[in-house]
Write a structure and sequence with these properties.
The protein has 20 helices and 2 strands. By secondary structure, the chain is mainly α. It has a two-stranded antiparallel ribbon with strand order 1-2. A hairpin with a 5-residue loop joins β1 and β2.
């Protein structure tokens, strides 16, 4: 009965409407890593629960063959983290509020599991998700720039640091808007595509400005590499059509540098001052914290655990700047193995997205890699949405290649198992892309 209700075509639309509404509220009023839960966090949390619904939760707890590797390992990782991590946390007596601050971001990691069946039924809903994802990035960028320039103070100046510019949505919006604009112009050289080119690249300047003002070196490096890769790819394919695009992008970059003349000095000063931000020393400190006892080495220190981090001047904090060292600290070697396998499975999905649509794949690849290695943004809703974007984009871009795989009837067959869409020989690197995602 539950499965039949889940296969009702109206349910994905209804539940995902709650998800999209949560994204909009989060974009304008939310904080990625709030110190205390306010009304915004409560409302967003309730909407997220409604969007998953009982059928989605029931499906998640069903174990059956035929599901993708990342989905199966994600189920075991979720159960292990909730059960073992919570038991260890209780054993060490960590405060409930601190443990909860770890558990909620941990649940965000499994948004692809919660929503995969809904996107299997309606792959085209990815277009709404991508719109919300870019919207969060643009609104966060505006809020970041406004706070840097003092435009929101008073009355909206927050009492805590928001780190909005660190979020993967900001970097994705900068990359995707530029790449989609170029892709669209190369495919359809017309007045309308030229207008889209100017509009989208102008919008992408907002997140780029936020990254420059806050000296986000990794993200700015990703922007530079993305422009070089996409530009070189389309220059090789359509050299004549790329000439006006290159001149326009070059003019925009020169204008940006002239408008922010101190950006280069700020980046150089930050590099000379902090270098690699003590990331290797931070990993060593995590190892020292868990390696003293075989049980803590295997199962970690539990949710809510703190350690003295060299990356923040030796202050006791409950996070690291690397996804895997955080999993080692909280869940031990067992959790580290689960997390590595889960991320590896999602990386394989991302590789397939790259094969289907280069623009979207690279735009997702940069924040995905940066967040699991260099930033603590993996503890945000944005990172969970990034993982959901990866999985839902594969379903969307491959729906024309293997429609039978994605139909509700095939979904309901074979003991209601999930199947990853296969790539046909007709799939190309320059795939469906902006023509369907815009």
């Amino acid at each position: 009965m539950t499965e039949a209700r889940f296969l009702n075509p109206s349910l994905p639309d209804l539940r995902l409407s709650f998800l999209f509404l949560a994204c909009v509220i989060y974009a304008f009023f939310g904080s990625p890593t709030p110190d205390h839960a306010g009304w915004t966090e409560i409302i967003v949390g309730c909407l997220m629960v409604f969007s998953v619904g009982i059928p989605g939760l029931v499906f998640l707890l069903r174990f059956s063959r035929g599901r993708p590797f990342w989905y199966g390992i994600g189920q075991f990782f979720l159960i292990y983290g909730l059960v073992v991590g919570s038991c260890v946390s209780i054993f060490f007596g960590h405060p409930f509020s601190q443990a909860l601050r770890d558990v909620i971001p941990f649940l965000f990691l499994f948004l692809p599991l919660f929503f995969q069946p809904a996107f299997m039924q309606r792959p085209e809903l990815y277009r709404r998700l991508s719109f919300c994802f870019v919207l969060i990035g643009l609104v966060f960028s505006f809020r970041s720039v406004a706070l840097q320039e003092g435009l929101l103070c008073p009355p909206f100046c927050p009492s805590e640091l928001l780190y909005l510019e660190n979020m993967p949505t900001v970097l994705f919006s900068a990359l995707f808007l530029t790449g989609a604009a170029v892709q669209n112009f190369i495919r359809r050289s017309s007045l309308r595509s030229a207008t889209v080119l100017v509009l989208f690249i102008s919008l992408s300047l907002l997140p780029v400005t936020a990254l420059i003002l806050t000296s986000q070196r990794a993200s700015l490096g990703a922007v530079a590499l993305y422009l070089l890769f996409i530009g070189g790819f389309y220059l090789y394919q359509r050299p004549l059509r790329m000439v006006p695009v290159m001149f326009f992008v070059l003019a925009v970059l020169v204008s940006t540098v002239l408008f922010l003349p101190s950006s280069g000095e700020s980046l150089a000063h930050k590099t000379a001052l902090v270098g690699l931000n003590n990331r290797p020393e931070e990993a060593k400190a995590v190892w020292d914290a868990v390696a003293g006892n075989p049980l803590t080495l295997l199962f970690g220190l539990g949710w809510g655990a703190h350690f003295h981090s060299p990356a923040v001047g030796g202050v006791s904090v409950n996070f690291t700047h690397n996804f895997f060292t955080t999993m080692l600290l909280k869940c031990g070697l067992c959790g580290l193995i689960f997390s590595f396998l889960y991320i590896a499975g999602l990386a394989r999905v991302l590789a397939r997205v790259l094969f289907l649509d280069l623009v979207t794949g690279l735009a997702l690849c940069a924040p995905f890699l940066i967040d699991i290695t260099l930033y603590a943004s993996f503890k945000s809703l944005d990172f969970g949405l990034t993982l959901l974007m990866i999985c839902s984009s594969l379903l969307y871009f491959s729906q024309s290649e293997s429609p039978s795989t994605l139909s509700p009837s095939s979904y309901a067959s074979s003991d209601h198992t999930l199947h990853e869409p296969s790539l046909s020989p007709r799939s190309r690197c320059d795939g469906p892309g902006f023509a369907r995602s815009g």
